[in-house]
């Protein structure tokens, strides 16, 4: 059924080419990516709860209905398993569905469809059928949201072979990675850090570029210690890196993984070989979070470069607390700095 | 609070197919319809029911205002739906269980939760989820329809343990009827004959998606037929009618005339006057004047007229009720805003006994607070 066709390949934007830019925040960049790709490819459809008339609860799909009509921008009944299951069916008939789940905390009814089918349709059919779909979901805490609206459970999806898991941290990456995800021949879970949705703006190229999946980005170069992180946690990590540089003279390298599955092992290992020290920062609970996987990978690939224990600064192993305590649960610059200092002073 | 009157209004048998016009007792201006029977509630209960509906409305207005001032977080308004919530609460006996959604503030209150407990989670304080031992209310369900199979399971459990005077009632919205859990819960209930009352507060909108785009069924009550149980439609803005059908359903669940305990699906046809939550703007998806037709059947006005017509309510009593409500609300808000929470409490109640690793995490947090002070935790992103 659906397979890679020439126009679907991800074309990295040539950095040498001058491109027009527009200042956008992250949620605007998501909207811009959807608009751009829907204009390019009429098989792209957006479906989910409240995505059409209401433009999405975070306004990520605002204006798409007016531009592309109700056949391609579809309000579905309230049923996550139905949304993802239907999207799988659409994807198997050459459509390119982009399904929205309103919050990651509501993805669980769709979990069976994702792990039992989207992830393994290719392998179960021996390559005959594929599921080129994207499931978008805002994730993470820090916005005083009600219970169940602040989860960061990316490890559930990373653990499933056959799925790709992408988490942008900046507007320009959000656009490039989402376009690449839509063009990707495999199912992609695209997690949007809602804390960053409107936190800042930056120049985003307006052309239809894809940022390749599976490549981490070095946000800050340094030589003493590497901090591995992604999504919303990139930003307090960069603040912490500046603080320890000012206060302690520690030179921190910050690696933004961007794609959690497949993991960019090469960049992870190269950076560790350079610094010999690693701190992993994530807002998901510490136990069995992705930090454990990264630490194990470093141990397997670069043990002899290790200068200090690998440490994790993570959410605690408790249900995400209500907002009065979320600042204590989420890794803030304070805790990240502590982790960096410990790694360096070992 | 809950009452235990036995003379119950039986729904019209035509409603068993779930497609009849919604059952009414009061017409739009609060006059008792000629063919209707007022439920056997005492004058005191009728006045108390009115007072609770009025309290619910004031609570709603106050909560929205507090949210606008940044004093509480996202809130799900209930104006328009207070009548159905309060009426189902009155129909429950104290030993019955209530599984509410995030919008059933009034139903929870009527079944025994205090106002401060309702406000605390909105202030970010999990302490509000603490359920007193003598109150049979489950914590609010935020994921959609997940309470439906649980209600079936609880009712099944009560039945297995011979608690034949206990029923389980769960609320959900029209959107919930699209979720798999709704279908699975009702199907199990029908198969196992468990004493569950499923109340769909059909408020016409699942955030921005209208009921007719949620389901192609003519009514929600008719879905009951698929599971072999009875479906009943009732005017959700008529508190007396909602009370009557809920009492009848509970009766059927607990102690039916024909000795066959059966679940019921009630569709309370109503309207959400305001936004889905304070984070939602209904003007993007529906016409402003749509609510006006529904407001003509407002549950508070109808009960007020009904009680005035019966000579049970006058200006003096109204003033007394208003004063009581304002005092209650002010006290609740003050007590909640004065409440604080210890960050270490996030480690409480995760397990029966806190595992070693979690004890270490709690100690780490405590030592960081001691070393740097609490302000350091609140320095975000800027």
Automatic annotation (TrEMBL), chain A:
Residues 1-11 have a biased composition (Basic and acidic residues). Residues 24-199 form the Transketolase-like pyrimidine-binding domain. Keywords: Oxidoreductase, Plasmid, Thiamine pyrophosphate. Its cofactor is thiamine diphosphate. Residues 1-23 are annotated as: Disordered. Residues 12-23 have a biased composition (Polar residues). GO terms for molecular function: oxidoreductase activity. SMART domains: Transket_pyr (SM00861). Pfam families: Transket_pyr, Transketolase_C. This is 2-oxoacid dehydrogenase E1 component beta subunit. One of its GO terms (biological process) is organic acid metabolic process. Its EC number is 1.2.4.-.
Automatic annotation (TrEMBL), chain B:
CDD domains: TPP_E1_PDC_ADC_BCADC. It holds the Pfam family E1_dh. It is an enzyme of class 1 (oxidoreductase). Keywords: Oxidoreductase, Plasmid, Pyruvate. Transmembrane segments: none annotated. GO terms for biological process: branched-chain amino acid catabolic process; sulfur compound biosynthetic process. GO terms for molecular function: oxidoreductase activity, acting on the aldehyde or oxo group of donors, disulfide as acceptor. Residues 1-20, 276-295 are annotated as: Disordered. InterPro entries: Alpha-ketoacid_DH_E1_comp, DH_E1, PdhA/BkdA, THDP-binding. Residues 1-13 have a biased composition (Polar residues). Its EC number is 1.2.4.-. Residues 55-341 form the Dehydrogenase E1 component domain. It comes from the Archaea. This is 2-oxoacid dehydrogenase E1 component alpha subunit. It comes from Natrialba magadii (strain ATCC 43099 / DSM 3394 / CCM 3739 / CIP 104546 / IAM 13178 / JCM 8861 / NBRC 102185 / NCIMB 2190 / MS3). The gene is oxdhA2.
């Amino acid at each position: 059924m659906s397979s890679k066709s020439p126009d679907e390949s991800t074309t990295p934007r040539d950095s040498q080419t001058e491109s027009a830019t527009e200042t956008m925040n992250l949620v605007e960049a998501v909207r811009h990516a959807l608009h751009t790709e829907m204009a390019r490819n009429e098989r792209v459809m957006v479906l989910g709860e409240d995505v059409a008339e209401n433009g999405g609860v975070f306004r990520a799909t605002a204006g798409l209905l007016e531009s592309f009509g109700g056949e391609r921008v579809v309000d579905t009944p309230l049923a996550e398993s139905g949304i993802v299951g239907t999207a799988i069916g659409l994807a198997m008939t050459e459509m390119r569905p982009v399904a929205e789940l309103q919050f990651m905390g509501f993805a669980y009814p769709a979990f069976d469809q994702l792990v039992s089918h989207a992830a393994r349709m290719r392998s179960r059919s021996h390559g005959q059928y594929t599921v080129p779909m994207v499931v978008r979901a805002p994730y993470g805490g820090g916005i005083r949201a009600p219970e169940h609206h602040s989860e960061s459970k990316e490890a559930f999806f990373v653990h499933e072979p056959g799925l790709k898991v992408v988490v942008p941290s900046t507007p320009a990456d959000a656009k490039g990675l989402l376009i690449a995800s839509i063009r990707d021949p495999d199912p992609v879970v695209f997690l949007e850090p809602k804390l960053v949705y409107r936190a800042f703006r930056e120049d985003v190229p307006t052309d239809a570029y894809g940022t390749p999946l599976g490549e981490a980005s070095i946000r800050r170069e340094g030589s003493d210690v590497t901090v591995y992180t992604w999504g919303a946690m990139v930003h307090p990590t960069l603040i912490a890196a500046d603080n320890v540089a000012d206060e302690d003279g520690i030179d921190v390298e910050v690696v933004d993984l961007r794609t959690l599955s497949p993991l960019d092992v090469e960049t992870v290992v190269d950076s560790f070989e350079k610094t010999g020290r690693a701190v992993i920062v994530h807002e998901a609970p510490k136990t069995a979070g992705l930090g454990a996987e990264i630490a194990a990978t470093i141990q397997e690939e670069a043990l002899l470069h290790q200068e200090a224990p690998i440490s994790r600064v993570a959410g605690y192993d408790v249900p995400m607390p209500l907002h009065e305590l979320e600042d204590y649960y989420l890794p803030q610059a304070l805790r990240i700095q502590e982790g960096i200092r410990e790694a360096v002073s070992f | 609070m809950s009452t235990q009157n036995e003379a119950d209004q039986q729904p019209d048998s035509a409603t068993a197919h779930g497609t009849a016009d919604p059952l009414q007792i009061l017409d739009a201006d609060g006059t008792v319809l000629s063919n209707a029977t007022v439920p056997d509630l005492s004058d005191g209960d009728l006045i108390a029911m009115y007072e609770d509906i009025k309290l619910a409305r004031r609570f709603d207005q106050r909560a929205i205002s507090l949210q606008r001032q940044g004093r509480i977080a996202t809130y799900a308004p209930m104006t328009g739906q207070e009548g159905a919530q309060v009426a189902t609460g009155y129909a429950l006996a104290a030993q019955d269980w209530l599984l509410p959604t995030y919008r059933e503030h009034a139903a929870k209150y009527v079944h025994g939760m205090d106002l401060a407990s309702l406000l605390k989670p909105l202030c970010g304080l999990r302490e509000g989820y603490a359920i007193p031992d003598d109150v049979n209310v489950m914590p609010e369900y935020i994921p959609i329809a997940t309470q439906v199979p649980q209600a079936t399971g609880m009712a099944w459990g009560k039945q297995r343990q011979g608690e034949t005077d206990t029923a389980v009632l769960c609320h959900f919205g029209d959107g919930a009827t699209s979720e798999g859990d709704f279908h699975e819960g009702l199907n199990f209930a029908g198969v196992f004959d468990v004493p569950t009352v499923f109340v769909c507060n059909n408020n016409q909108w699942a955030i921005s998606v209208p009921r007719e785009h949620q389901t192609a069924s003519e009514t929600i009550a008719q879905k009951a037929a698929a599971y072999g149980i009875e479906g009943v439609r009732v005017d959700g803005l008529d508190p007396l009618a909602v009370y009557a059908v809920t009492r009848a359903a509970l009766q059927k669940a607990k102690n039916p005339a024909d000795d066959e305990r059966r679940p019921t699906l009630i569709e309370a046809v109503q309207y959400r006057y305001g936004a889905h939550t304070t984070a939602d703007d209904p003007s993007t998806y529906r016409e402003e004047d749509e609510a006006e037709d529904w407001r003509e059947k407002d549950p508070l006005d109808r009960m007020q007229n009904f009680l005035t017509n019966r000579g049970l309510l006058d200006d003096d009593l109204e003033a007394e009720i208003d004063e009581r409500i304002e005092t209650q609300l002010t006290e609740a808000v003050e007590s909640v805003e004065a409440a604080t929470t210890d960050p270490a409490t996030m480690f409480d109640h995760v397990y029966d006994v806190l595992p070693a690793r979690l004890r270490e995490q709690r100690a780490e947090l405590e030592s960081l607070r001691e070393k740097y002070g609490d302000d350091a935790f609140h320095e975000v992103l800027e």
